[in-house]
Every structure is written in structure tokens, then in C-alpha cells.
Amino acid sequence: MAVVEEKQIIKQYQPLIRALVPYEQQNRLLEGINKFSTRLPSNIRRIVKDEVIRLTSLTDAPADNSAFALFPVMKFKHFGVQMRLDKVGAQILKDETALYQNRYTVGVFESVMNSEYYQTQVKKEQFRKIVDAFNIESQSFSDIDFGDNVAVSPNFTVSSLDFEKGKSSAISSLGFRNMTVESRRPPTVSNGQTLTFTFPEINGFTQEPTDITYVLNAVKYNKHSGKYESHFVLAEDTDPKLAHAIENYVTSSIYQQPLQRDLEVERAMQDLERDRLLENSPWLPVYLRQNKNIFSAVTALVTKANAQFNTVNEVLNTLSAGMQSGHLYQELQTYREAFVISGVVETRKGPVNILTTHRQLVAEGQLAAYIYLLNKTASLSCLHCRLAEVSNDDKNKAYAIHDISPKVLPDVDTLSHVLFCREVRSQLSKLTLGEKSEFKPIPKHWVVSETGKSIGYVMEEALDRRSETRYLVDKPASVKLGLLSSLNARLCDVSCKGMRLTVAPGIHKFNPTVKVTIPEFKLKNGVYSVLDYHPESGVLRLCVQDEVRQAKSGAQINAVVEENSAYFKLRDVARQQRFLHRFLWELAVRHLPSLSVLCVMNRHWRDRMKTVYQSESSDDLYPFSKTQNITPLHGFFADKNAAKPKSQLLDALFSGKRDHAMVVHCLRKSDDKLVFIRERDYFQSPLRQQIQKKLSDEQIQLCTSEIIAVRCHDTATPLTKKRLAQLSKLDKAMYDKLTTMQDGYTHCIYITNISALENDIVRANLRTPRRKAPTP
After folding, report:
1. Scanning 66, 182, 494, 672, which has the fewest C-beta atoms within 10 Å of its C-beta?
2. Lowest-confidence region among 101-105, 140-144, 168-172, 198-202
């Protein structure tokens, strides 16, 4: 019995024993025991001490692990002792002898001959290979910061009497302290020579031709351009004001001119990849304006993907109603995330529309009750919202990149935040009560009495419903209602086939067709059909349905447009929408809310995941963490308990068998051990009851991630041509290469941490009912 107890003590205190081995080698064992085990009973201290002495004693026993070796066995001698070990056993021998100060001891012999220790080393090596296989290079959604190495390729030339016989030479790059000048032949100048270049008059840089002195640093041949490049450094005695003017010019031109070739390629690659992630993202960006502590939604950005994943009008209506709730503001500002739950609850007084957040339901102890009631009426809606702040720097970049004047879009300059939303009702619609729940009266601030202000949206031209150019105008007009009656109106917008007017609000009787007169357009009694009239706002929409009348009215409108082209160009709705779309797009690509994986075409699944994009403040990788610029994804995709790197989930996502998955880990708080839970066991298994109990006792924490795979809709995004326009001026070959590369992107995978919702759902004992077995 004592022998068994002694073995248990040795096994329990194995880490302490290994920590004391170096002390014994230095004859300081007593000091080590006193340092690490002052509170241990004397009998345990004695057993630990005897075990350390035994392990560090020398031996001459031959080692042979051929009985359990996985690899071919090698024969060799170590310290004169015969060995028969495979490569894993040889590595164990090397590591253990290093621990025992390069001596062959009983501890070394037992480690080499221990099959369990051997299998542990094999598993560690296998796990390391799996982790390495799923390590992907990561990038940030923020713009690349080139620092002091930034340089632009300006569109002007410089000249020097000592360089190329005074001929004008193109500048391939201009930086804060450096300049590179191109020439077809190698210049007849030597390194270290000082040259004075004449810069022309440049808006924002020089007001007249200016001489600037540079020192030649090197001459190199550029195989991409087929020209010689002379690299110059700004002379040390340059006037500080002039050097500062150069820095200001380069800084202000970063987004309006192409960068140096290599930098422009990097910038174009990042822009193209971020555009693709936004185009295929299931998140719907909604842009907010903040006034003190109150948010108001201005507009939304609709793409093919987010229109497919969300019912856009329902989402915007829910947000419009939610904007009236002060609790939603506070929650978004505090957590930068909210799950907005809404729907219809049947009461004794009739149906009641409610809108609240899951945290408010948890605070009232009503999460399970209301999810059950909303599912009962089949009206449950849940929006996952994430808030990102828009800085003035972001807006200035958007203005500069797309050459937009703030005067063209006066309303967007006041945007302060972008709220990303997506519907996640599928996570809650199948849940039912696991135990009886108490139903409390509905708080007044949860009841939605009326919808808020409607939220408009902007979409790319390919999705736009407009079939022709419209112009925003403000001109007097009159609408003839009958033989002797007419109605004064204001013309709001006009096109060749229709117009929008505003009349005095109220009920007016319009015939199916009316006659419209616009004196300033020389249009008299034009016959239009009534499409729609809104009595409350007085908005009247008209169109021309007869082909003959279309030709006549279209000719009149076109004649007016041609005569006043400058006036109508500024009022072209399509042009303004294009500017607005690009501006909102630029704000969104820098704040995408989910960790995103870009996938390309490749025969091997391991090489299909190209790069990972993640914001600095995102916790979507939790419970894992990235190291420098490497993101580990084995916890989300790797097959568990597999000897080699495999991923059934990625195979299913890429083949189209699945487009959605849940990855669940359980973090044990006592020892921070991470346990993987299969998706099926998490939803339908007795294990869920155990998880719910331990979660309620605060013994564990659930880490739940939702994975959505989206097949790329198109080879090009709405801004692909814009992103490559600058590069086409520098390197046509690289431009063609990047254009061809766009065909290689196949999928975008989005990983989103939804632990805040799932932890509370499990605590509330909500569960998915088990599927009934089919009747024979």
C-alpha cells in the first residue's frame, strides 16, 4: 500500500521533481527543496528528495525503444553505452541529457524507455505541424503606414545642366529626403556629386521655378521600366523651409497621385482585397450622425451579398425604431456591440410590438421568456450590431482618393459612426424553453409605438433601379387638374421620361393623366401619367408612358440640359450617387467588423487561405491570439484528434456543402484549459445540460464563433478599375498581372465571436428540441 501511495506522490509532484534536478546537479538540492516546497509535509519532501537523487544517479543500462518506435531504429553508442533508438527517441535522449547536464543518468534512461512519454512527444510534434499548417499571414483593415519611406511618382519633370545635358527628366519617386530620376542611358555623373535641379511651378509646392540641390547616391537599372534610375539625397545645407515644403507636398499627394512603384503595388493589393471583403460581407453598413448622446441613422450601403443575407427594408425599419431608444445608444457606446431583439408578443390586450437588446432581457431575467414568446408568434428578429467610429482622417482620405469636394456631399461630412448590422435570427428561431420561466409585465420603454424616420440606402450602379439620368432641380411648375382648375407645384427632379413634384399636402383628386407646365423649361401642358401621390408629404410622381409623348418630352428636356450642361452636371442624381457610394465605401472598408479570410483557387486546401484581415480592436480570434503578423486558425478549422493537418469543415465550405458553421470551445477557469465541443453536442446532447450548470456556477466560459463562407459574386468589385488606375500609369505589366489575379479569388470566410449572446442563451437554459425519429 505504501509503494502505491509513493508512486502517486511521485506522479503528482513530477513538475517539482524535474525543477529540482538542476539543483541536485549543482549540489544545491536542499536549497531548491526549501525554495519550492516549504509548505509540503516532511514525508512528501523526503519522497521527492529521494526521487531526485535516484533520477540523477549515473547508469550504464543500454537503451532500446524498438518495441514502440514509429520510425526506423538507429544503432549508436552514447557515452560508451549501446543505444537502439529511432529519431524521436534520439531527440528525447538529446533533450534529457541536456537537462541532466549532459550526463547519462537513470532519469535519462527512464525517459527514453517510457512509451507514454514517447507518445506525448509525438503528439506535441503532430500538434505543432497542425498549428503551422493553419498559420496564416494577417493584415489590418487600417491603411498601410509607409512612414518616412513614403514616396510619390509626380507627373512633372525636373532638369539640371549637369544631368542629361539639361534635358527634362521624369521623376519615378519623390520622398521626404530622396528623389529618383529616370533616364534611358546611364548618366555621366559619379556617386557623391552634387547637382542642382530646377523644379517647375507646382500648385501646393512652389509658386515659381525653384532650384533644389541633391547629392547622387547610386545609379541602378530598373528591369520593370527598362530605364536607369539615379537615386539622389537632399543636400544637408538645404533651407529647412524648402525641405518642409517638400514633405508637405508629398504628404498631401499620397492619395491623389501614384506612389513609388513598389509602394503603389502594396497599396493596390490591400485596396483590392479590402474591397472584395466588403463586397461579399453579410454585414450591412448603416451610417450614423451623433448629436451629443443621440444617434440618428442617415443612410445605408447595400451590396449584392448583404442584400442576400439580410432583408434590407426590415433591418432598416428595426434600426429606425431602435434609434429612439436611449438604452441602445448606451449599450453601443459601452460595448461597441449589441444584439437587438424585436417582434410581436401576444398579450390579453392584443399584440404588442417590442424592441430591446439581449442584455436588457438578461438584466430583467426575461431572455428565455421573450425568446419563447416571440418564437410562438413566428415574429422573432435579432440583429447583431457592431459600432465603429469614423474619424475626420477617414473622411479626408475618402475625399482625396475619389477627388470629391465636401461641397458636393454636404450631409456626409457630419457622419460620426458606422453601424454594421446582420440578421442572426437563425440562432434563436429554433430555441425553446428548457424549464419553466416566469413572465413579467412588458416595460414601457420596450414597446414600439411608431416607427422612426425612414432610412435610405445607396447601392452600386449595377444594382441601381434607375434606368435613366435624373437631375435634381428646384423650379416652379403647375399641374392642371381639370378644365379650369390647376395646382401650384415645385419641380424636385426631372428626367426624359418622368419627374417628381411637390404640391401642397392634402387630398387632391388627380386624373390618371395630368398636364404639367414648367415655364423655365419651356414645357407647356405636357401630358404625364400619375404613378404615385403621397398626401402627407405632397410628393407627386409622374411618368410618360406613350412613346410619341416620350419622344416629345424627352427632346424638350434634352434640349434644356444641353443648353445648360454645367448647371445640370452638378445636379445629376447618378453622379451624386456615384460620389456618395464611393465615399461611403471608403469609410466601410477600414472598419469591417469580422475577422475575414480571403481564399484563392488552389489544388491543395492548405494553400487556399491566402490572408487574414482583422481590426486591431477585434476579439473574433478569442480564445486564440495572433503572434506579430501570424494568425492561428487551427482552433476553427483543423480536425480534432487528427494525426495530420486535415479540415473536413474547409472541404465542406469550399465544395458548397456547407456555408455556415458554429465552432465552440469551453474555457475552464480553474486551470485555463481549453476544451473543444462538437457543434452537434453543443446543440443536442446531454452535455449541454452539464455546460449550463457549470456556466451558472461560473466555473467555465463559452467561446462561440460563427463561421460564414461566401462564394465571391464577381471577379471585379465596383472599385476595381479605380484601384488599378494609378498603377496603370507606372507599370502596365503589373497592372495586367493584378487584373488577372482577380479571377483567382473564390471565397471570403468571416469568423465572428458571438459569445456574449451564446453564454446568456445557455445560462437561460434555452435549447434546441431534439429531432423526433421518423415513424416507420
Report:
1. 672
2. 101-105
